């Protein structure tokens, strides 16, 4: 059983609130309830499985579609569940678990992290990945490699008084199983929709992230 934070800080609560709005359902159905606090999502259900079921239409971590999960697993997923594994002032991480009681394994991970350190670590990992290429500009400075999508953007700080006060936000979607084209395309779509909702919730500027990147590259 994972050890999870159970008492979010004040700033963490602000981040969770923003992400709750950002990660509302991306289907045409009515939005599902937002991600719950870590202590709630860590509970074990009556069937002995850790985590919670997804939406009624099978979406997990709000943006991982059934098709994406099948592609990541390589088959129809057994007993998929969603579990918030990090929920603090600087990060929100949700994993899709598959497998029976005592055999659950993470198949897909979706993460949103704040700050320069998270950005630098994610960039280093993304640039070192096999077959990496540049991603879409609407994600900011982004990288696409088999089974891993990374977006480095700038969004309003959760506790900012000025909506223009932006800090680095890092969004990552990854498959912990299969990494073929179908899984990668599904992860890219999941991250795109998450980025749209995050922008609506707190305000983001991927174009500014790209401009800052260009300035840093061409500067003296």
From TrEMBL:
<feature type="region of interest" description="Disordered">
    <location>
        <begin position="28"/>
        <end position="57"/>
    </location>
</feature>
<keyword id="KW-0732">Signal</keyword>
<protein>
    <recommendedName>
        <fullName>DUF3558 domain-containing protein</fullName>
    </recommendedName>
</protein>
<feature type="signal peptide">
    <location>
        <begin position="1"/>
        <end position="27"/>
    </location>
</feature>
């Amino acid at each position: 059983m994972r050890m999870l934070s159970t008492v979010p800080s004040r700033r963490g609560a602000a981040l969770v609130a923003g992400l709750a709005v950002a990660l509302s359902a991306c289907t045409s159905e009515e939005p599902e309830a937002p991600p719950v606090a870590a202590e709630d999502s860590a509970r074990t259900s009556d069937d002995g499985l850790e985590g919670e079921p997804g939406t009624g239409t099978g979406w997990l971590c709000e943006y991982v579609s059934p098709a994406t999960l099948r592609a990541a697993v390589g088959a129809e997923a057994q007993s998929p569940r969603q579990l918030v594994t990090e929920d603090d002032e600087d990060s929100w991480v949700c994993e899709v678990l598959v497998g029976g009681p005592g055999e659950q394994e993470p198949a897909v991970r979706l993460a949103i992290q704040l700050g320069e350190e998270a950005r630098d670590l994610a960039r280093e990992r993304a640039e070192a990945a096999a077959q990496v290429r540049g991603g879409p500009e609407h994600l900011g400075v982004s990288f696409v490699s088999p089974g891993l999508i990374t977006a480095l953007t700038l969004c309003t700080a959760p506790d900012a008084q000025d909506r223009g006060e932006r800090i680095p936000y890092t969004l990552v979607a990854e498959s912990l199983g299969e990494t073929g084209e179908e899984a990668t395309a599904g992860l890219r779509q999941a991250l795109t929709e998450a980025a749209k909702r995050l922008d609506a919730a707190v305000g983001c500027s991927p174009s500014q992230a790209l401009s800052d990147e260009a300035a840093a590259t061409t500067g003296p």
